[in-house]
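In this supplementary section we document a worked example of the pipeline. Step one takes a protein sequence of length 493 as its only input; no multiple sequence alignment statistics are reported here. Step two produces a three-dimensional model, which step three serialises into structure tokens for compact storage. The input and output of this example are shown verbatim.
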Amino acid sequence: MKPLTVLTTLLGAAAVAAPALAVGGYYSGALGARAAGRGGAFVARADDVTAVSINPAGLANVDGTIFEAGNQFSYNGYDFTRATTLDTGNLQNGVAPSVAFGKVGNGTPWQVADPFLGAASNLGLRNWGFAIAAFAPPGISREQYPLEAGQRFMMASREAIILDYAVSAAWKFRDLFGVGATLEWISVPRLVYSLVINANPAPGAASPVSSMYDILATTSGSDPFAFNAILGGWFRPTPSFELGLAGQVVPANIVTHSTLSVTAIDPSVLGDVTLSRQGAPANDVTVKLPLPLLVRAGARYRHLAGTREVYDLELDVEYETWSRANQFTVDTNGLEATAAGNQTVKLGQITVAKQWRDTVSVKLGGDFALVPDRFTLRAGAYYETAVAPDGYANVDFPGGQQIGAAVGTSVFLQSGLEIALAYQLRFQPSFGVSEANARVYQQVPASPCVSPYTDPNTCNANYLGQPSPAVNAGTYAATSHLVSLAVVYRFGR
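The serialised model returned by step three reads:
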């Protein structure tokens, strides 16, 4: 058998385990309670400390000094019902039985921490603004599914923690236009991913439901530093109309230094697998996870009563190059694996296709000063195109189109304190994938069946033309409820 090849597949799968900074792909929701309450339509307004990420040019309009602290709480329900399939690996009287699966859901839907902490100030300079911030970009950081369920060959669990540290500067020319830039340090202190792999080495073997050769494989790692940068600008041709533009301009990657562990679900069949490098025990691997480039554009109308803003309405469009994440790369750095004490296999560089597509998001939202300088209401709605083709749907991230709405409010106290609260709903309409269209296959790396997968002597007759059984056929649905709270303190104006 080829137990080490089993591990290479696991390593590739581990690359998909991160969440959170824009919308779509790994991410979900808007940064900050004020932006969240507008459905994320904030690139032209960008008038609090979250501008460091959304549009740093907005910091040029800071009057005095602002301190901001916030958090997002969320409930992330993700359901999958695998399609009924024929269990060709467990024949009964020579006939493959039909197996139906129950609906499974994310067993860890509650997420209590997506914090934000930052400060911005003009430092006494009329046309300048500066800021520093530390925050966890909004996203689903953890998912957990039953091990003995229909999704087990796609993913058993994942956990990812991402922290961003940002420093920004902005400058404006009068009230006509402004520009700004953010330098960003992205840290990933924890990235864990696990799934079940079928390690059966027999020619033509296929067990689409379960097998005595199944292995639970897990990678765990971190990346202390990845550099990124955001540029932004705004233009106000009239007091009532404003345009905003911002973009993430560095083709960055998260590169985690990870360890690999492998556990046979039935150890009496597979025995132990040991890892080494140049004869010495080792289990380290490197996972490369591409981050998208993005551009945000917004147009905002301000209804003024004299110089006071009564309400505003903003329309934003966001484009993200998720096609950069069409595959994930894993480098084993010369790692070797040995099974049964005598068979060694070298692990090279692994690439795993995701086939993600670029996405477009449209967001509409605004604020209404119900009681000037005391009480503001806000609301918004948004739509986002699907990042994953249906055939590549998976339980690791909601990949379908997203529809959402948001409401929020701010209460202003005489002390310069603002308390902002927002609720967002993100909804992925239910969709189905048939086995004929499914393109996520069970990992059977020890199988001798190789591309183009048509050799009847090494490939299973039921799956000719594909490497193994498709395991992502079924019905997908996802709903997230997100509540954001922020405390903003302004002084020195």
